[in-house]
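User: Structure please.
Assistant: Input sequence and predicted structure:
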Amino acid sequence: MEWQVTIDDNTQIVDLPDDSTASDLVNHLKLHPDSLLVLTDEEKMIPIPLVSKLPEKPIRVILVASGG
């Protein structure tokens, strides 16, 4: 299945198996799971736990920084 994934101002189409999780997406993008949030990219963004199957909706990845 294809997902529209936006990171910052960069939008791309990512093709992954239908049962892929948010963790699969993070690994595919070669990002570190401790440095981001995965959310639905809608007016009301909903967090997607890394172990959860990706919804059939556009996805937004927000990169975060920790001071600790």
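The longest strand covers residues 2-7.
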